[in-house]
Write a structure and sequence with these properties.
heterotrimer; A alpha/beta; B alpha/beta; C mainly beta; A: alpha/beta; Peroxisomal Thiolase, Chain A, domain 1; three-stranded mixed β-sheet; 34% helix; C: mainly beta; OB fold (Dihydrolipoamide Acetyltransferase, E2P); five-stranded antiparallel β-sheet; three-stranded antiparallel β-sheet; 2 helices; 9% helix
Chain lengths: 348, 392, 129
């Protein structure tokens, strides 16, 4: 049996309500809440970035996995906000957590699905027998240009998954990917904010890739939506995943637990992985989880997990996602948020 | 026992025979070397000596403040005394005291007859002063994490307030008293008195310390001429005698200290100094202490043995440390009001002792002063230098 | 932060590695070559626990240039449960509500940036628990 042996998530404590962003730009708050189903989002502290978020998430994953960090043979962090353009994020992580130095490390980038790609490769390396454990992480401190629709959703957080063969808490039954060159969203080298193609990001990009990956995954597995207790999809906002899931035949109830974007925002590479984390916090042995990510550019990764008896032993060994999402929040006003996100022009 | 201690430390008896200093403050038109040379020329003239054999210059950070190191040579050159030996001495904010101590040793040992001990700092040339001063703390384990010097003393203040119920008002009383003294010192940077209310409402710098709890950023220089008592007698000029010179060190990081409310370097150096001089704290008539922040004066006056531990704040409040009080502290205005051009401070303290002990302090004169103590401190208390001078 | 200087402190700043004296058991953080308690020169490397309490603290309102955009921020002296003391910022807090005795844990955070193009420098900060 191969799958997740330890998982952990981390969300910053800071939040901004979408009302304040809408007010700043004279937008219709109610229309945004209704149209995008977004209420508030996480904001990283000025001392937090993809690396610090990954370290905290991976620390919790290690607490749950209860393994010697030295046994981890690979660490991949997927993000579109790696603090360095050139210098791997995970070298810092391994030295912080006592992993390695005999370890494979790289930074992954594939817009919002770099995290699930990291998970997939970690899983595959264990499956190939190359190593006992591998760590895949999706984390981001996402940027959205001021006044752009993305500003309502771009948030911060991440999740880490240790893949292994022993004491598996969620077995990975099937995986797949569906990818094409679809220019819906990008950020050029040296640019601060990403650009996107407006409504083209919807049907031809997000919905097409999620649907085809999801449909193919169901066919590959021979399972149907009713065989699953939970489903989670990439959450660029509150509305899209609900629609994508519904079209594949999943119910609101199946998606409820992993649907965290209305209060978390879009943590990009950490989006569907963090939804998965919220599901693992409550799933029961035998439950099946359907997961499809999406990354602009564009592609979707699909995973089917089956929760094992081990889950009950590990879920209380680290903080739970809903607790981090619902408690100890520090709300920022727009000025503080603009300062935190370095949107104010300063002298060097 | 006392005599044994004394004989072990002392060679020749050492005297201070002349002093000179610049005004402390923002000296926009004067460079680091101008300031030092001005103070030194005054000291040489004041002493009446026709030459000096050697010199020491206390400077905390010529490198960070103005990008100049090799200060000994620079100053000997511009003072026009090259090729005599000239050495820069550094012990952070205690650099001036350390320079004086080296001059004392050189004369006591008989190695030189007349030695100049000076100190200088030029802090207003645009350097990041907060960062430069922070170099006197543990760069890797304090400063790296964002602490500043006001912050370090603020942590001492908060711990002292927590442990001994020292009040915010008591801190303010130190500033009020020192500004009052400084208003009578023509060389002081701030010659304006401040009220308790002004201190209590000043801009917060590092809670609980406010702007008026902090010594200012200053330019300034100070110099004294040191020789043997025998030589001083021949000159037939007023002189004072150095009866103790002591120094101690402690952990560089505040967090590693045994206590966060006591400065061990002060009590250890004081103990040595009192033994050398054969004196008790109660024998001291007045003292210049290192009030880089108001809390420092409170803690230091306790650790010098002037007040019971925890009662330094009350002493500032009830007038014990004012001129005319039980033991006047910082009659010059202290670092707080006179100014704190870091490397010059320790030497300027010696100058105040000299002026008081020779009866030249004008309206801030302490009556019948026989013994004066100067306490100069580096960093958050990682080094301390104490001298006791006696009127003759 | 110049790279070699940053690099050599990584074990301490990232993982809280300390030196435990083999003779008297005193723990030095950062590690030292001579035990300040018993003068022994023999140590073993240990990793400090991350939980402790605030002994004293300040709120920095005027910071050095490097931290001037972070003000106000709290810096505290923290005593870890194993007795070791260190100086760290207290992050994610209402600066006016921190108190002596507050329980904290150390987390991995970015401490400073070396300008716009230099290194990101990481280490430990405390958060209230």
């Amino acid at each position: 049996m191969i799958g997740i042996v330890g998982y952990g998530s981390y969300l910053p404590r800071y939040r901004i309500k979408v009302d304040l962003i809408a007010k700043q730009w004279g937008a219709d708050t109610e229309a945004i809440k209704r149209g995008l189903m977004l209420y508030e989002k996480t904001v990283p502290g000025t001392d937090e970035d993809t690396i610090t978020i990954s370290v905290e998430a991976a620390k919790y994953a290690l607490q749950r996995a209860r393994i010697d960090p030295q046994k981890i043979g690979a660490v991949y962090i997927g993000s579109e906000s790696h603090p360095y353009a050139v210098k791997p994020s995970a070298t810092i992580l391994i030295d912080a957590l006592g992993i390695g130095p005999h370890v494979h490390v790289a930074s992954y980038e594939f817009a919002c699905k770099a995290g699930t790609e990291a998970m997939y490769v970690a899983y595959s390396l264990v499956k190939a027998g190359e190593m006992e454990y591998a760590l895949g992480i999706g984390a981001d401190t996402s940027q959205g240009a001021p006044g752009d629709a993305l500003e309502y959703s771009a948030s911060a957080g991440g999740s880490a998954f240790i893949m292994g063969k022993e004491n598996v808490v969620a077995e990975i039954l099937f995986t797949n990917s569906y990818t094409s060159d679809t220019p819906d969203f990008w950020r050029r080298e040296h640019e601060f904010y990403p650009r996107h193609a407006g409504r083209f990001t919807g049907e031809p990009a997000y919905f097409k890739h999620i649907h085809n990956a999801g449909k193919n995954l169901l066919e590959k597995s021979g399972l149907s939506p009713k065989d699953f207790q939970f489903a989670v999809f990439h959450m660029p906002n509150g509305k899209f995943p609900q629609e994508a899931g519904k079209k594949l035949g999943f119910t609101k109830e199946q998606m409820e637990v992993g649907w965290i974007s209305p209060w978390m925002g879009n943590t990009y590479s950490g989006s569907s992985p963090t939804g998965l984390s919220a599901i693992l916090d409550v799933a029961k042995p035998g439950d099946k989880i359907f997961m499809v990510s999406f990354g602009s550019g564009a592609g979707s990764d699909g995973f089917i997990y089956k929760v094992t008896n081990e889950i009950d032993k590990v879920r209380d060994l680290a903080p739970k996602l809903r607790d981090m999402l619902d408690n100890d929040k520090i709300y920022l006003d727009y000025g503080e948020y603009a300062k935190f996100r370095k949107k104010i022009i300063l002298n060097e | 026992m006392l005599n044994e201690m004394k004989s072990r430390f002392a060679g020749k008896d050492v005297a201070v025979i002349g002093v000179g200093m610049t005004k402390f403050g923002e000296l926009w038109k004067k460079s680091l070397r101008d300031i030092f040379v001005e103070a030194s020329l005054k000291a040489i003239e004041n002493s009446g000596v026709d030459h000096i054999d050697s010199m020491y210059v206390g400077t905390m950070s010529g490198g960070l403040f103005v990008g100049q190191e090799h200060i000994g040579a620079v100053m000997a050159d511009y003072l026009g005394v090259a090729p005599i030996p000239a050495t820069r001495v550094e012990s952070a904010c205690a650099s001036g005291g350390a320079a004086f101590r080296q001059a004392y040793f050189e004369v006591a040992s008989g190695h030189s007859e007349i030695v100049l001990a000076g100190g200088v700092e030029k802090m207003t040339d645009g350097a990041d002063v907060t960062e430069a001063l922070a170099a006197a703390a543990d760069q890797e384990y304090e400063v790296y994490n964002g602490i500043t010097f006001p912050g370090l003393y603020a942590m001492i203040a908060r711990a002292h307030m927590h442990q001994y119920k020292t009040t915010r008002e008591q801190l303010a009383h130190v500033a009020v008293k020192n500004h009052k003294n400084g208003s009578m010192n023509p060389n002081a940077q701030f010659r304006s008195p401040v009220t308790l209310e002004q201190v209590m409402k000043a801009t917060m710098v590092a809670d609980p310390l406010r702007l008026l709890d902090c010594s200012p950023v200053s330019d300034g220089g100070a110099a004294v001429i040191v020789c043997s008592v025998d030589y001083a007698k021949k000159l037939k000029k007023p002189y004072v005698k150095v009866v103790a010179s002591a120094q101690a060190s402690d952990t560089i990081a505040l967090h590693s200290r045994e206590s966060l409310t006591a400065l061990k370097c002060v009590s250890v150096a004081a103990d040595k100094a009192y033994k050398q001089a054969g004196l008790k704290p109660s024998d001291i008539n007045f003292a210049e202490v290192h009030d880089c922040f108001t809390i420092a004066e409170i803690v230091v006056t306790e650790d010098l043995g002037f007040f019971e531990k925890g009662l330094g704040g009350a002493a500032a409040e009830n007038g014990s440390t004012a001129i005319g009080g039980k033991i006047p502290i910082n009659t010059s205005g202290g670092l707080k009001s006179k100014g704190h051009p870091v490397g010059a401070t320790g030497v300027a303290q010696i100058i105040e002792l000299y002026e008081q002990l020779t009866g030249n302090s004008g309206e801030r004169q302490v009556k019948n002063a026989k013994y004066g103590l100067a306490q100069n401190m580096g960093g958050s208390g990682a080094s301390c230098i104490i001298h006791i001078l006696e009127a003759v | 932060m110049i790279s070699p200087r940053y690099h050599r402190e990584i074990p301490q700043r990232y993982r809280l590695e300390a030196g435990k004296c083999k003779q008297c058991g005193n723990i030095s953080f950062p590690p030292r070559l001579v035990c300040p308690k018993c003068k022994s020169k023999s140590f073993e490397t240990v990793q400090l626990g991350r939980e402790g309490k605030i002994l004293t603290f300040t709120i920095i309102r005027v910071g050095p240039d490097k931290f001037s955009k972070e003000t106000p921020y709290v810096v505290a002296i923290i005593e870890l449960n194993d007795g070791v003391r260190l100086t760290a910022q207290v992050s994610d807090c209402d600066v006016d509500k921190v108190a002596i005795g507050d329980k904290v844990k150390l987390v991995f955070r970015k401490i400073q940036d070396e300008g716009k193009s230099g290194l990101h420098c990481y280490g430990y900060k405390a958060v209230l628990t």
